[in-house]
Specification:
By secondary structure, the protein is α/β, with parallel strands linked by helices. It is built from 2 helices and 20 strands. Helices cover about 20% and strands about 30% of the residues. It is globular and about 70 Å long.
Length: about 220
């Protein structure tokens, strides 16, 4: 019975299909994953980044923890930086965690990030458990400059605001989450959106700037 099942699965297989199977299952998920995980753990040690159990990395993860700041990543998180592992679309840059003095990045359990850039200058960014962030999204707690033309080169630290992303949130590819935003549990941000205001739980928002689309 088992042999018949195997024969059924291999029916119509060509040598090119076999190559595809070996490449995707062995080279991508096994060899690339092992290499990426080892490099990540070395970087995490050097930058004093805390991480949980069963973290999986594909491709290089950028880490830069400023002094008197912290970065923590929970259990069972998936960090996809490599274009070979990206499934939905191309990944333009690696997953990036960057904090400056006093900043905090907190990634809870079971979070999936694909080419996500998170920069926290002076406040914090918290991403709730089971949240998925699609490729090439940007999250920032700061404008990094003041709005006034006269003082535009000033850093404007007083305007920085924390970001809180709830549990089981889905953020579509190429979206930008700006300072002070809070996204409620189970909500969805449509692809290509720029989020400038709070999103309640169980809602879909999208656009530039992001606006309410529907309840979930």
């Amino acid at each position: 019975m088992r042999i018949q099942n195997i024969k059924q699965k291999l029916k119509g297989f060509t040598i090119f299909d076999l190559f595809s199977l070996i490449y995707n299952r062995i080279i991508l998920f096994w060899l690339l994953g092992i290499r990426s995980n080892v490099i990540f753990k070395i970087k995490a040690f050097l930058w004093n980044v805390k991480y949980g159990k069963n973290i999986k990395c594909y491709g290089s993860v950028f880490l830069n923890r400023g002094h008197l700041s912290s970065i923590s990543i929970g259990d069972n998180c998936l960090l996809i930086s490599g274009k070979r592992r990206g499934t939905a679309c191309s990944i333009y840059s690696p997953v990036k965690f960057r904090t400056y003095k006093g900043g905090k990045i907190i990634i809870k359990d079971d979070v999936e990030l694909s080419g996500t850039s998170i920069t926290v200058r002076s406040t914090s960014c918290t991403i709730g458990s089971k949240t998925m962030i699609a490729p090439n999204c940007i999250i920032m707690d700061s404008d990094f400059h003041t709005v006034s033309p006269k003082y535009r080169r000033n850093p404007g630290f007083e305007n920085d605001r924390e970001i809180i992303i709830g549990e089981n949130v889905w953020i579509g590819s190429r979206s930008t989450i700006l300072k002070g935003v809070k996204i409620g549990d189970n909500s969805i941000v449509a692809a290509g959106s720029v989020v400038t205001k709070n999103i309640p739980s169980d809602q879909m928002w999208g656009g530039i700037p992001a606006k309410f689309i529907s309840k979930l």
